[in-house]
Amino acid sequence: MDTTSSYYLLSKFSKLRKKPQQPLTDLTELYGRIANQSIYYLKLEEQKDYHAALQGWKALNTDVMYQITMLEREYPNAQTYSREEASLNTGVRELYHRSLGHLERLKNICEEQSSSKPASKPHVNIPNSKSTKKSDSNSHNGYSSFIRKPISYPISHSIPSQGFSTKMATTLRDPKTRARKGYHIFNNYPKSNSGNNSNSNMHKVNFAPSKPLGKKSNVSRSYHDDYESEEKLPMEDDENLVDSMGNFKGFDDDKIFMNLTSDSDKNSDLHSSNSLDFDPDELYGDDDEDEDEELRKINKHVTNLSVGSATNLPATKYTESSSLSGSPERYGVETGKTSAFSAPVKTQRKSRSPTRSVDSKPNKSTSNLLHKPHSNSPSSSLTYNRPQQVPTATRKVLSYPQSRPSEKKGTPSGNSGNSSLKNPKKPLTKKAAKPVSNTTSRKPITTGKVSNKRPYGNPSHSASLYSTAQSSTSSFSSSSPGGPQITGGSSASKAKIDSSDVNEGDEDEEEKKRLKEALEDEIIESLHGVDRTAAKQIFAEIVVHGDEVHWEDIAGLEGAKASLKEAVVYPFLRPDLFRGLREPIRGMLLFGPPGTGKTMLARSVATESHSTFFSVSASTLTSKYLGESEKLVRALFAVAKKLSPSIIFVDEIDSIMGSRSNEGENESSRRIKNEFLVQWSSLSSAAAGKPNGSEEDDERVLVLAATNLPWSIDEAARRRFVRRQYIPLPEPETRSVQLSKLLSHQKHTLSDEDFIELVELTAGFSGSDITSLAKDAAMGPLRELGEQLLLTPRESIRSIALRDFKSSLRYIKPSVSQEGLDKYEDWAAQFGSSGA
Ligand SMILES: Nc1ncnc2c1ncn2[C@@H]1O[C@H](COP(=O)(O)OP(=O)(O)OP(=O)(O)O)[C@@H](O)[C@H]1O
């Protein structure tokens, strides 16, 4: 590859990678959009227009799920979110989860309606009934609703064809242009429609939302345009316009709404040549190659989702005004976040042309892809089915030969490939990827009918998606060096900037994401009696990906490691040996002073036992909505069982499982605790008395918890922690090992004697104190340089010496007091087992 093209690709790569973190605007916009659309669909429901509302919810869910994915991709570092961003992020997810609930409800209503009116004909004209039928038959094979229930939208009969300009027609007819602009998603239409009748072809593409609705929309006139001329929106600074309920004064909700609902005739304005004469080049300019590329990728992604469009989805401008109608709380939208509805932020960022209304500018990433019809006429939408895409991709990736970390390390290896996965007809078995070939075989699962027990077939794919055990260097690496590495979140940062791999890498990323979502949906679909929304939240917030810790990363603590191996790792790796009386324990507690490596140990257990790791804290389980926390707890255990072997790690368990006698405890935490205890009990198989147990008992889920306050744990919970492992302050040898590990990659002049002296000087330090000390000492040589630091070459900086440690020791002190230690020792003697 010549240097010019390498340079081009490199700069493109860095552009894509180094986008500044500015999620606030996007999150604000997304939040506002979901909120507004939610209100609108709820209104539709109120008006008993269930079908339209259902379509709307479907489209909204698909759109939002996609937007969230894109946001995560664009701003991968969620830890750096500001408070406002983090709360918006949570808000978006909450609204999304609610919308899933609404969707479910509407589905039920519609189903009930259709069953009570069997003779009623569908009001849509489905052009490709064959494919629709096919997708219907797929609806029982366990794919998620996103995959298996493609939304069929009829080809419009109401869009006046004369409204299309020649320019538009040319753009759409030319397959090359379509492909370049990313319109290839519409290739799914039957050939007959794409032939000589250019108008019918155009009917399939509804660009209306992409086009500013402004000029001819009554709604826009009634609200937006009035203010647009002054370049100021009502919510921008005029508080007087908002009443105490958060509603806007001076707007007659019903009138606005009536404008929209009763003016369906006038909506033909929306279909006028102006509104449909949309040329992306005109709007965005033709030179934006990067975004073209982005668009192409986005389309690729969207093609593989079953994209729905809302029959009655309000156009952007309307949604802004619709947010004004009715109190947000009424629809479960938090008023505290109404600022998110405000348009000005959008105005600043998205505006490219001062003459255009930014509000009505399409969101390029989606609006022309998730083509939302603007008309109230149910027929003015399009059909788009691509039900087979995700399953196919799933199978494709699943057929990669597996190489588990255990193979590398010489532990018994499992089946390195699963031919059955290559053939969708063949049963998918979980056994295939077990690290040890088990004498008792698991029941195969056919793709035709999903077993309740293991709907996702091969655990290796779930493991590679969800388990910390699957390292980015091991998963799939044998078959595809630059290829799919499901976990190892930092693969992007690790990747060498090899220009030829850039596009491939990005596509892999998308493929992985899509696969992951598809699998999550499959799993959720197969969980009975579990709240879908809660299960989604578990996947989104609690399942930990990547960031592996291995035994050798932890200095010392040999006793604790041995105990964990016996209690968890071996039983998880050799379930056939650990049955009946030898069944593995379901609860283990790590307790001790802060910073002694409890969390590290838990993570390494998950890595070494190839388990799915669920990291739970009080904050992740607590919801301010009544009953939601219990649903989360139930979903947590259900998903953990499904993805077993699993480790549910609860850090600071005392904050969830505090003593129930505590009078200050509130009702909500009491309910979480009770639900947790109930679910936890359900893990015990009661197989201890049976001769060999059964393979049912192999569903291994361990609750592993850590605490600095073991004495405040509720007694019922304490009983369930069959092992209570004390993790004390590091012994001298452990300190020595840890110090040498920390210095192993640094230039230093410490001799063996120096190490001995240092170990003595750090008596009473915890593991994290030692890490802090070493970090501070490593700064010594740089501190000495003062301002010269900026000019000194790296190799001229002197090595770290004992004196640096000594000077750091002047202000870095042990964090645990002697009295504190005595308390731990006492509790360990009474309830725990020691194991340094
Ligand atoms: N045995 C150890 N080996 C290597 N590093 C250690 C060890 N113990 C502690 N550390 C260091 O201390 C840091 C904190 O460890 P960790 O979070 O596991 O402690 P913890 O016991 O869970 O603390 P807390 O109780 O406060 O949550 C680690 O990131 C690591 O740098």
TrEMBL record:
Native organism? Zygosaccharomyces mellis
Q: Which intervals carry biased composition (Basic and acidic residues)?
A: 222-235
Protein name (database record)? AAA+ ATPase domain-containing protein
Q: Which family does it belong to?
A: Belongs to the AAA ATPase family.
Q: Which Gene3D superfamilies match?
A: 1.10.8.60, P-loop containing nucleotide triphosphate hydrolases
Record carries keyword Metal-binding: no
**Taxonomic classification:** Eukaryota, Fungi, Dikarya, Ascomycota, Saccharomycotina
> Which region ranges are annotated with the description Disordered?
111-143, 186-238, 263-290, 317-514
Q: Point to the regions of Acidic residues compositional bias.
A: 278-290, 501-510
Among the GO molecular function terms of this UniProt record, one is:
ATP hydrolysis activity
**Compositional bias segments (type: Polar residues):** 317-326, 363-392, 436-450
Q: Which UniProt keywords apply?
A: ATP-binding, Nucleotide-binding
- Stretches with biased composition (Low complexity): 187-201, 460-480
Taking every annotated instance into account, which residue ranges of this chain make up the domain AAA+ ATPase?
Answer: 584-731
